[in-house]
Amino acid sequence: MGDAAIQRPKGKNTRWAISSLLCSIIILNYFDRVAIAVAAPELQASFNLSATEIGIVFSIYNYAYTMMQLPIGTMLDKWGVSWITRIGMAVWSILTIIFAFISGKLLLYILRFFTGVMSASAFPAASKATANWFPYHERGLANSLFDSAAKFSNVIGGPLVALLITFYDWRTAFLVLGIINVIFTLVFWSYYDEPGRHKKISEEEINYIQKYGADASDIPVHRAKDVWKKLFASRKVWGVTIGFTGYGYTFNLLLLWLPTFFKEEFQVDLLSSSLLTAIPWLIASITGVAVGGWLVDRLIQKGHKPDRVYKGVIIIGMLIGFSFLGAIFTSNPILSMVFISVGLAGISATAPIGWTIASKISPPGAQGQTSSIVNFSNNLFGGIIAAALTGYLVDKTGSFNLSFMIAGAVLAIGLFFYTIVLGDIKTVEFGKTEKESK
Fold this sequence. Notes:
Elements: H1 14-47, H2 51-67, H3 69-79, H4 81-99, H5 105-119, H6 122-133, H7 136-167, H8 170-191, H9 203-211, H10 224-232, H11 235-266, H12 270-301, H13 306-321, H14 333-361, H15 367-397, H16 401-421, H17 434-437
Helix pairs in contact: 1-2, 1-6, 1-7, 1-8, 2-5, 2-15, 3-4, 3-15, 4-5, 4-6, 4-8, 6-7, 6-15, 7-8, 7-12, 7-14, 11-12, 11-14, 11-15, 11-16, 12-13, 12-14, 13-14, 13-16, 14-15, 15-16
């Protein structure tokens, strides 16, 4: 589809305001995780936690978040993005405020668990909302914006929480974050709706997003049981799920362990470690939008076949991604940061495409379920296994070398699934065999 053939709506573009809302949700969703990481030493002192116990505080959120991924997909497809997201945001905002006033280890664990449960809808909801609001030739940029928001939260969230803790304390930091969450929940509650019901959208824009491939319906077409059965039997779903996990394992390893990596491997101070960590995430945020978003959409609008564009960027991005392994073969922290920045930039360019492929192969009305499968695998292997295995291996070996090599192997497996197992990027169809739908 060339640029000349696309007839864009004139005037206000409500869909991009929706995209801004989705980005804000992801930033706030990740602020919580960034805040816990930054506040960890203060929490250990306040609650008299050992290293193992603070590890439980980290992981219990991820267990709850991952556990909810599959059911949240069905809930999103059944009840829609609007209400599931509103309720999730409202409750996690209240839990964040309550966190500022708690005492006792048991309550700390319980609160972190339920915060993980209520935060679980963010990414599947953003993916489903993007599928509802954006045609295929704009979806790369829209997906890249909310995906890069997760990375950008590390750039602004860490310094913000650190400043609040430095000038006040960790309780003030979480209270401020909770108040910000409440304010934004009210904004989202009043503004977000589906395209066909939105008060601000024009008839011209509705026709535009439906004409060029957006799924503006929030109504499930098939029973949830039938959808799950079909999705789990599809090689295309397995292709994008394990492919995306190849990216997610490295992403989560670096998200959770990069500050410690710089501090322990190169014996730098906390401020230097924070700076060395922030720069790769800033570069990753920019690359995700510029390559995984703008460039992908631009190539498709110029008439290039979407499948070739998606797979071409995935192959190049993941191959560049292996550059992060160079970080363990140098004694120079700056050079190590450069290797990680290049590698993280490469895999970050592929992440928005993974969300686009997930929505494109999804049966009508089942984007939430498809996205939740992808995010479940991503968080199971990245958020839980990568986090725990890395800590164990660092304790046993005294370095991050083996952990980085395992991440490289998982990245290679992901590339294989994306390029070989996935096959053609077509909708998983009902009423046909998997062979017929390829």
